[in-house]
Write a structure and sequence with these properties.
This protein has about 400 residues and is mainly alpha-helical. It has 16 helices and no strands. The longest helix has about 30 residues. The protein is globular and about 55 Å long. It starts with a helix and ends with a helix. One of its GO terms (cellular component) is plasma membrane. Belongs to the major facilitator superfamily.
């Protein structure tokens, strides 16, 4: 009962993690008009948010050892909730930049903490379902924002609403803190089977010397480059290139996150039959197919299907990569390596999408599908090379 209750709490925490992640791409078209900013100014917000997440991910291993996963998750949720409320009252673009920092710090802490905890203590299907609940948050966020914009004709009420939801989830996390202590005492019965994990790999002070680590970091780097880019620029691509309304574009981007969510829910069952490495490969092929469809002059309703297909393809990649980390590099090194993987993932999400924003401003947003295809190809090559280097 303790394990089930804690799993529910962890899933709720990942909903809170996903809620803010898709908001900027949906609201930026309205924000930039209100503040008189250029299209690519969203890139600086992304850099600050994700840069803060990177710093948080690198430091998170030491923070968790000091305070524990439960407390770190609770405090992170409080920080992000306050930041979201602050954004809803922001009088200018400058304040958005300032509040992007605590938003990123909170996200990085909870992301790394819960990923490592689930990788060590639960099986692959739980990791897929964990990230499915991130998708629930990322899908519900734009839906809430779209409805708030329809009702009030303002993005501010949407940020305020999601900020309040975040703080309510933080209260639930606070009340659950005793469960983490109890679960640690029962962890021997819940931990992943030892034969599935490389327990002989000694602790490395410099994990970059472990065979295949650099390819793992590259895979995460380009994965988040793709995921963040669709979230940040997908709405602008639909509006400015495909001539779709702001409200419809917001709903269709929500469907992209819905594809990730549904894909991860289904992946949880598929992992009973197919290995993590096979899931990663299949997902990349599906994501590539969806990106290729964006290049074709399809009817408007078919574009939503393309975004959903990209989401379905991306769905298993991240959770399966995370869950494979203890198997590939040893559970003694998993906390540090997962922290680095999360950091490199967010570095990719912080810098590559803004670079495309600059490219789109100088040339055209019509390059968006070609850019996605290039990133997915590099991710695929990195992942396949990693598999070769870490065959057990």
């Amino acid at each position: 009962m303790i394990t089930i209750t804690l799993l529910i709490i962890i899933y709720l925490a990942f909903i809170s993690l996903g809620l803010p992640d898709s908001l900027l791409g949906v609201t930026w078209p309205a924000m930039r008009i209100e503040w008189g900013m250029s299209l690519d100014a969203a890139g600086l917000v992304t850099i600050l948010t994700t840069g803060s997440t990177v710093l948080s991910s690198f430091a998170n291993g030491h923070v968790i050892k000091r305070f524990g996963t439960g407390k770190v998750t609770f405090i992170s949720c409080v920080i992000t909730g306050i930041a979201l409320l602050g954004i809803s009252f922001s009088p200018s673009y400058l304040w958005l930049l300032v509040l992007a920092i605590p938003l990123g710090l909170g996200a990085g802490s909870v992301d790394t903490a819960l990923n490592n905890y689930v990788a060590l203590h639960f099986k692959s299907h739980h990791m897929s379902w964990l990230h499915c609940f991130w998708g629930v948050g990322a899908t519900v966020g734009p839906i809430i924002m779209a409805q708030c914009m329809l009702l009030t004709d303002s993005w501010r009420f949407g940020y305020r609403t999601i900020g309040i939801i975040q703080l309510v989830l933080a209260l639930i996390l606070f009340m659950s803190l005793p469960l983490w202590i109890k679960h640690r005492k029962l962890s021997a019965s819940n931990i992943v089977e030892e034969k599935q994990i490389n327990t002989e790999e000694p602790i490395k002070k410099n994990v970059f010397r472990l065979r295949g680590v650099k390819y793992a970091l590259s895979t995460f780097f380009f994965y988040c480059a793709v995921e963040f880019s669709v979230g940040l620029w997908g709405s602008s691509f639909l509006i400015h290139v495909k001539n779709i309304s702001v409200e419809t574009a917001a709903s269709w981007v929500a469907m992209y996150y819905g594809g990730i969510t549904v894909g991860r829910f289904i992946s949880g069952f598929v992992t009973f039959r197919i290995s993590n490495r096979q899931m990663i490969r299949i997902g990349q092929i599906i994501a590539m197919s969806g990106s290729i469809l964006l290049m074709i002059p399809l009817p408007h309703y078919a574009l939503m299907g393309s975004l959903v297909l990209i989401g379905l393809g991306l769905a298993p990649i991240f959770p399966c990569m995370i869950h494979e980390t203890p198997t590939r590099f040893g559970k003694n090194n998993s906390q540090v390596i997962i922290g680095y993987q999360m950091a490199f993932a967010y570095i990719g999400g912080a810098f590559i999408p803004p670079l495309f924003g600059l490219l789109a401003r100088k040339i055209s947003l019509t390059l968006f599908p070609y850019y996605l295809i290039l990133c997915i190809m590099i991710m695929f090559l990195s992942s396949e090379t990693l598999t070769v280097h870490t065959k057990n």
